[in-house]
Design goal:
2 copies of one chain form a homodimer.
Chain A: E1 4-12, H1 16-30, E2 36-41, H2 46-52, H3 58-64, E3 69-74, H4 84-96, E4 101-107, E5 123-129, E6 139-142, E7 150-158, H5 159-174, E8 180-185, H6 191-205, E9 212-217, H7 218-227, E10 234-237, H8 239-252, E11 260-264, E12 272-276, H9 293-305, H10 309-326, H11 333-343
Parallel strand pairs in A: 1-2, 1-3, 3-12, 5-10, 8-9, 8-10
Antiparallel strand pairs in A: 4-5, 4-11, 6-7, 11-12
The structure holds 3-isopropylmalic acid (2 copies).
C-alpha cells in the first residue's frame, strides 16, 4: 500500500465547497500520521464554464490523471443549460477514466428517517455499469423542430463491458455475508441487450457457485425496493436502470443526504472518483446548512478503494454512531464535520 | 353514445380468468338495462401458445378489431420463455391497435395500506406513451455469444408520437381540479429524445395556459414518488420511464392489487384495451385468492372511455366504499366481486 495519497479535489458548485471541506477534514483526521496527503483543488463547474466556456479539456484530463483518486462535491447550476455540465463534465470524466463500476451502497443507518413505514433493514450495494447503455451519446435527430422530427437514443452494450461489471458485482457479493446478487434489467422487452446481460450473468454465475442469484425486471424492482428492501444484498444493472434505482434506493435508505458513490476503475488504470449522490443544492448553498455525511461516506469508499480498509471502517463507524446520536439537534455543516473528525 | 357494448374478453393466464369474471360481473351490474352487452371470449396466452405456437395472428387482430373495447386479465406463465408472450402478444397488440395513451391512475384509497409512512394523499394519473421509445424492438446484436458481442436497443421518438400523447396529457390535466402536469424524462443525458420531448411539451403548454407544468428527471421522480407523492397530479412520460414509474406508483398507492390501466387509442380507430397492472400470479391461480379490485377499476376506465361516465364513477365509488369497509376480513375473489356488484 502506498503511504501517500495524491488527491484531486473538485468542490464544484453550490454546496459542493462546503461538503468537500468536511470530507477533507475527516480524511485528514482518520489517516495515520505517516500517510502523506497531498491535495490539489480544481475549479470545474459553473463558474469555470461561464468564464471560459470550458467544462473539461484534454489538458484537464491529463492533469487529473496524475492523482490517486478524485473527491468531488457537486457539479451543476441552474445558470447553465441542462445537460451541459452533466455531459460535458460528469459523464465525460466517467467515460474518459473508464469508470465502469459505479458503486452505490444503500444502508439504513440508526437514527435515520426513511419514508417507508416500519423500520426495514436495508443494507445493499448497487453496482451500476458506468460506461455503456443509453449513456454513450449514441443516437441522433433528423428534421429537428419540425412535425416530422425523429430522435433516437441508442443503448450500446458489449460483452466486454457487461462481463467486467458483472464479474465485479459477483466478487462483491461473494465477499459479503449473505452472498446474494440480483441482476436488474428489462429483458422481456429490451431483448437484444437483455439477452446479452442475462447470458453473461449466467455464465459468470457458474464461477461463483456460492453466490445466490436472481433476476428481476426493473419495474418489479422498484416495487420490491419500497415493499421488501431487505431482500437485496448486491444488485448489478445497466447505466440507466442503475441511475433510476439508486436514486430510489437512496430515498428509501435515508435520503440523498447520506448516499455516497464511487465511480471506479477497479484496475486503477485511471483515478477513481468519489462523490455524494446529491446535487449542488443551490437553494441552500453558502448557508452552512448542507449535510456533509454523504461526502464523508464517499471518503470512506475512497479509502477502501486505496486499500485503507481499517480507516474506511472507522469513518463509517463514526458516521453511524453520529447519526444514532443526532436526535433533533440541528447542526451546521461544519459542526457535523467536526463531530465526525473527532469520532474517527 | 352507443347503447350496446361489444366487448372482447381475454382472461389469459393464471389468475386472469378469476379476476376477469368479477370484472364482468360488476360491468353487468352497473350497466343500465337498455345497454346491450355482448362479450366474446378469446383464448390468448400460454395455453394457446403451447398448443399452436401462436401468440396473436393477423386473423386474431382482424377479429379483435370488430369490438368496442377489450378487457384483459393477465398474460404470462413461467412455462413460456420470458419475452415471448410479452412481445408476441401484449406489445404486439399495443402497437397493432396504436394504443399510444397508456393510462395508469394512482390513487391511495381509504383503508388501503401503503408502504409509506404517514398516510400521504396520493391521487395522480400517469400518461405513459405506448408505441415508441425503447419498446419498438429496434436494435440488434452482432457476434452473439462471443466475447465481442455488441447488442443495441434503439429508442425511437417522433414529433408525431410525442405530441399526441403530450396533448392528451395536457387535456387530462386541464380537466382535473389541480391542473398540474409534470414531464418526466432524462433530458440531461438522453439529449436527442430529451430535446424532442421537452420542446414539444413546451410548445403544447402554450395552448394550455391554465395548466401548471414542471419538468423532472426520472431518477429524481422516483425520490418524489416516495417522499412527496402528493405533489403529482398528471404525469406524462415515455414508454420505458412510464413502465418503471407506474410500477413504483402502484406500489406506493396500495400495491398492484388495486392498480388499473388502459391501453387507449383516443380517436377510437381501434378498440382500446383495459387490464389490471398486476400479472398472472401463477402461484395463487385457481385458489379464489386473487383480488379482483384492479380489474374492476380497469372496467371503470373502460366505461369512461366508452362514454359511460356516470357508471364509471359508480364503479369507482363502490370500490372506494368497499375498500374502506374491508378491515381485516379475508374474502375470496368471488366474494369481493359480489360485494362490488351489489354496491354499484
Ligand atoms: C447528473 C447525471 C448525469 C447523473 C447520471 O445520470 O448518472 C446523476 O443523476 C447520477 O446519478 O450520478
Ligand atoms: C409485460 C411487459 C411487456 C409490460 C411492459 O413493460 O409494458 C408490463 O410491465 C406493463 O407495464 O404493462
Amino acid at each position: 500500500m502506498s503511504r501517500s495519497i495524491n488527491l484531486a479535489v473538485i468542490p464544484g458548485d453550490g454546496i459542493g465547497q462546503e461538503v468537500v471541506a468536511q470530507g477533507l477534514k475527516v480524511l485528514n483526521a482518520v489517516l495515520p500520521q505517516d500517510v502523506k496527503l497531498e491535495t490539489k483543488e480544481y475549479d470545474f463547474g459553473a463558474r469555470r464554464y461561464h468564464a471560459t466556456g470550458e467544462t473539461l479539456t484534454d489538458a484537464d484530463l491529463a492533469d487529473l490523471k496524475k492523482h490517486d483518486a478524485i473527491l468531488l462535491g457537486a457539479i451543476g447550476d441552474p445558470s447553465v443549460p441542462s445537460g451541459v455540465l452533466e455531459r460535458g463534465f460528469l459523464l465525460k470524466l466517467r467515460f474518459a477514466f473508464d469508470h465502469h463500476v459505479n458503486l452505490r451502497p444503500s444502508k439504513l443507518l440508526p437514527g435515520v428517517a426513511t419514508p417507508l413505514a416500519g423500520q426495514p433493514e436495508i443494507d445493499f450495494v448497487v453496482v451500476r455499469e458506468g460506461t455503456e447503455g443509453p449513456y454513450t451519446g449514441n443516437g441522433g435527430t433528423i428534421r429537428q423542430g419540425t412535425e416530422h422530427e425523429v430522435a433516437t437514443e441508442v443503448s450500446v452494450n458489449t460483452a466486454f463491458g457487461v462481463e467486467r461489471v458483472v464479474r465485479d458485482a459477483f466478487a462483491r457479493a461473494q465477499a459479503r455475508p449473505r452472498k446474494k446478487l440480483a441482476l436488474i434489467h428489462k429483458n422481456n422487452v429490451l431483448a437484444f441487450a437483455g439477452h446479452l446481460w442475462t447470458n453473461v450473468f449466467n455464465k459468470v454465475a457458474a464461477e461463483f457457485p456460492d453466490v445466490t442469484t436472481e433476476y428481476m425486471h426493473v419495474d418489479a424492482a422498484t416495487i420490491y425496493l419500497v415493499t421488501q428492501p431487505e431482500r437485496f444484498d448486491v444488485i448489478v444493472t445497466d447505466n440507466l436502470f442503475g441511475d433510476i434505482i439508486t436514486d430510489l434506493a437512496a430515498a428509501v435508505s435515508g435520503g440523498i443526504g447520506v448516499a455516497a458513490s464511487g465511480n471506479i476503475n477497479p484496475a486503477r488504470a485511471f483515478p477513481s472518483m468519489f462523490e455524494p449522490v446529491h446535487g449542488s443544492a443551490p437553494d441552500i448553498a453558502g448557508q452552512g446548512k448542507a449535510d456533509p455525511t454523504a461526502t464523508v461516506l464517499s471518503v470512506a469508499l475512497l479509502l477502501r478503494h486505496l486499500g485503507y480498509d481499517a480507516e474506511a471502517a472507522r469513518v463509517e463507524e463514526a458516521v453511524s454512531t453520529d447519526l444514532g446520536a443526532r436526535g433533533t439537534t440541528v447542526r451546521s455543516t461544519d459542526e457535523i464535520g467536526d463531530a465526525l473528525a473527532v469520532r474517527v
